[in-house]
Amino acid sequence: MVSSTRAASSLTWSDNRKPIVPEAISVGPIHRRMRELHPWISLREASRLAGSSESLIKGGIKRGQITQRKVHRAHPSLERTSVIAFLHDRRPSG
Questions:
Q1: For 18, which DSSP code?
Q2: CA distance 39 to 22
Q3: Which end of the chain is more exposed for a tag (fewer CB within 10 A), N or C?
Q4: What count of other Cβ atoms lies within 10 Å of the Cβ of residue 83?
Q5: Are 76 and 43 in contact (CB under 8 A)?
Q6: How remote is the C-alpha of 78 from its chain's centroid?
Q7: Which residues contact 84 (CB under 8 A, 6 or more apart)?
Q8: Residues forming beta bridges with residue 20, ordered by sequence position
Q9: Which long-range contacts (CB under 8 A, 24 or more apart) does 32-37 make?
Q10: When comparing pLDDT for 41 and 17, which is higher?
Q11: Is the confidence at residue 84, as pLDDT, over 60?
């Protein structure tokens, strides 16, 4: 095992490169934050939710059925709840 000391905390790395966290460090808030769903998702993630191509999601954006926020990126940032609502409305009834 290899030890690393920085400031007042110390982490010990096991042979499989996973840190062994001392008991004095609380990782609960970090784990809770990682489990929370982010309100905005990528076009790729939206198409994975749909189980289809990105063109289905792009059509929903063009028709105003999916909310897209204005960000300076190459790919759209989509509101998760609007994507889910769009996909729910597309589901065949019966």
A1: -
A2: 32
A3: C
A4: 25
A5: yes
A6: 12
A7: 49
A8: 12
A9: 37/80
A10: 41
A11: yes
What band does 19 get if pLDDT is binned at 50, 70 and 90?
low
How far is residue 44's CA from residue 52's CA, in Å, rounded to a whole number?
10
Please say whether the beta carbons of 78 and 40 come within 8 A. yes
Are the beta carbons of 20 and 46 closer than 8 angstroms?
no
Q: Cβ–Cβ contacts within 10 Å for residue 49, how many? A: 14
pLDDT number for residue 52: 82
- The 10s digit of each residue's pLDDT in 41-69 is 999 999 998 888 899 999 999 999 999 99
Sort strands 9-13 and 19-20 into parallel, antiparallel or unpaired: antiparallel
Residues, the chain, total?
94
Distance CA 57, CA 49 (A): 10
And the tokens for 6? 């920085």
User: Which residues, in sequence order, are bridge partners of residue 78?
Assistant: 41, 68
Sign of CA dihedral 54, 64, 50, 71: positive
Name residue, tokens 């940032």: 77
